[in-house]
Amino acid sequence: MNNWIEETFGVRKPIIAMCHLLPLPGDPYYDEEKGMKEVIAWARKDLLALQEGGVDAVMFSNEFSMPYLTKVHAITVASMARVIGEIMHEIKVPFGVNVLWDPEASLDLAAATGAAFVREIFSGVYASDFGLWNPNAGEAVRHRQMISARNVKLLFNIVPEAAKYLADRDVVEIARSTVFNHRPDGLCVSGLTAGTQTDVSVLQKVKEAVGDTPVFANTGVRLENVREQLRIADGAVVGTTFKVDGCFENHVDPTRVKVFMETVREFRKNL
Fold first, then answer.
1. Which CATH number do you get for residue 134?
2. Which of 1, 164, 227, 235 might form a disulfide with 14, Cβ 3.0–4.6 angstroms?
């Protein structure tokens, strides 16, 4: 199953960089005065900074649509599609999408924009900051078939941020059963919140449990720990560490991206 990673990203152990979108129409903190032009301008600036820094892929996410919904409104998908469409001609790397936190909406957006992958909470039942979380992987996979998005890869986040699995199950057991029952294209292992380091011991246990299924470190990958994380993980999703001063709310800092990616490229030479 690892073959799809190199086919999609052109490298082993890819770095997927987050392109966080500002609040969108319908979101509580949307800036109606500046409007969608500001949202597009912000996304374009971050995209170009990430690509200039040499990342292997980007993932567009409505990260500032707080507080998140587990079933988004149509305006969110429409707005994200507009943003991606406006800057599509400047996207030079493979890209994915994540409509927080709605699997079917993420797939709809992927189908409409040509995204190569989606990351979502596809399975499990959780008590979360957003209420009871009860996605249905079977429905999501069938939805992918229905909208002709069969080639879109599914990255299952099995340790959701700001949520706890309701059943008393070890993460290794969850990973193993998720792979058996749902056949994900990859698993994402996270810390508690955005920017919180993924526990190395958890990564190791999950990787050992799921065999050939790719495992991504999903949060908290930084310059000082990226080698350690990539020794285990098959790739990483990076957001906060690429921001100015490492601050979640800021723009991407191309210098931070370049230094990080130089370290990653040096590491990959020895694979």
1. 3.20.20.390
2. 235
- Residue 229 in tokens: 């994380």
Could you tell me which residues are beta bridge partners of residue 243? 252
Q: Could you tell me the residue range of the domain that residue 104 belongs to?
A: 3-268
Domains: count for the chain: 1
Report angle CA 238, 55, 25 to the nearest 5 degrees.
60
pLDDT one-digit tens code per residue, 103-145? 999 999 999 999 999 999 999 999 999 999 999 999 999 999 9
The sign one gets for the Cα dihedral 59, 227, 248, 69 is: positive
Tell me whether strands 57-61 and 235-238 are parallel, antiparallel or unpaired. unpaired
Has residue 196 got a pLDDT over 70? no
Strand pairing of 131-133 and 126-128?
Answer: antiparallel
**CA 258 – CA 153 distance, rounded (Å):** 27
What average pLDDT does the structure give for the chain?
A: 95
